[in-house]
């Protein structure tokens, strides 16, 4: 399992979510529904949370941006390498598997 962010995605998260900020992390989690589905019926989502509030199961760092997945959400991301980029046409995050 790997989460990879493009340079454009790192810049987008930093600008749109005003990260990095103190002890805040970019957390990816699983939600019900959505377009891009690693497992049927569920899709990835993200939020900004305090690092101490997340029971971290996965962590990576991109140019000062801390990216985490909580232990409880690893089941969704396991067995996949997720690539996160920006769809420039609509200025939104896009997901793909590698």
Task: Describe this structure as you would to a colleague.
The protein has 98 residues and is an alpha/beta fold. The chain has one domain (2-97): Hypothetical Protein Aq_1857, Chain: A, CATH 2.60.300.12. The protein has helices spanning 7-17, 74-77, and strands at 2-5, 24-32, 42-50, 56-62, 65-70, 81-87, 92-97. The strands form 2 sheets. It has a 4-stranded mixed β-sheet. A 3-stranded mixed β-sheet has the order 1-6-7. The chain starts with a strand and ends with a strand.
Concise summary:
This protein has 98 residues and is α/β, with parallel strands linked by helices. The chain has two helices and seven strands.
Descriptive keywords:
single chain, 98 residues, alpha/beta, 4-stranded mixed beta sheet, 3-stranded mixed beta sheet, 2 helices, PdhI-like, HesB-like_dom_sf
